[in-house]
Amino acid sequence: MAAKKRDGDEPYEPDEPLAEDGAPTDAESVDDLIAAEDADVEVSESGNSLDADIDHILSEAGQREIEEYRDRAARAEAELANFRTRVERDRAANREAVIAEVIRSLLPAIDDLDRAAAHGDLEGSPLELVAQKLRQAFERYGLRAVGVVGEPFDPAVHEAIVQLPSAEATTQTVADVIEGGYALGDRLVRPAKVAVSVPQG
Predict the structure, then answer these.
(1) CA distance 10 to 152
(2) 187-190 vs 192-199, strand pairing mode
(3) 3-class secondary structure per residue, 3-59
C-alpha cells in the first residue's frame, strides 16, 4: 500500500510510530518500538526462568521435608523396638524374681524332705511321692541344685562354713555339702553351704 502524500510529492510519515495493532505508542521511533518489543520478550523469558527456579526450589524443599519425615519415622520405629525389648526383658526379669521368691520360701520344706530321704524315712511313704512332685515342678521352672562334693570352691555359688586343711588338696575344693544351694537360670536363689578342703600351709 502506497504511503499517503501531503500537498507535495513527499510521502507521509506519521508523527508517532504505531504498534502492530495500529495503536499509538510512547516510543519515539520505530526502532524504539522494536527495542521495546524485544525487551518484552526478554522479560517474558526471564519470567519463565523465574517460575522454573521457584518450582525447583519448592521441589528441593519438598524433598528435604520428605527425607526429614522419613528419618523421624525411622527413629520412632527404632525407639519403639527398643522400648518393646526393654519391656519384654523387664517382664521376664520380674517373672523370674517372683518365681525365685516363691521357691526361696519353700526351700526349708525341700531341705526337710532331702534330710528325710537321706535317712531313708521317705522310702515307701506318701511323702516320697510329694517330694518327687515338688522337685519336678521346680525343675520345670529351671531350678537346679548347686554345690557338689569334689568341685572347685566358687564363692559366687558356695558359702564356706568351715575350712579343712588337707595334705592332698592342691586347691580349694568342696569337701562336704552341709546345705544344698539352688539357682534359677542365672539367678542364685541360695548359695550352697559347704565345707572346703584347703591345702595345708
Answers:
(1) 133
(2) unpaired
(3) CCECCCCCECCCCCCECCCCCECCCCCHHHHHHHHHHHHHHHHHHHHHHHHHHHHHH
Q: How far apart, in whole angstroms, are the C-alpha atoms of residue 11 and residue 1?
A: 12
User: What single-letter DSSP state applies at residue 187?
Assistant: E
Q: For the segment 146-173, what is each residue's pLDDT rounded down to a tens digit? A: 999 989 999 999 999 999 998 888 899 9
Read off the C-alpha cell for 89.
Answer: 526383658
Q: What is the DSSP letter of 11?
A: B
CA separation for the pair 182, 144 (Å, rounded): 6
Query: What would the pLDDT profile of 114-137 be if each residue is shown by its tens digit?
Result: 888 888 888 888 888 888 898 888
CA atoms within 13 A of residue 53's CA, in its CB half-sphere: 6
76-100 pLDDT, tens digit per residue, is 999 999 999 999 999 988 888 898 8
Instruction: Give strand ranges (E) for 36-191.
Output: 143-146, 158-166, 173-179, 181-184, 187-190
Higher pLDDT among residues 59 and 113, named by residue:
113
What is the C-alpha separation between 32 and 16, in angstroms, rounded? 11
DSSP conformational letter for 76: H
Q: Answer yes or no: is pLDDT of 182 > 90.
A: yes
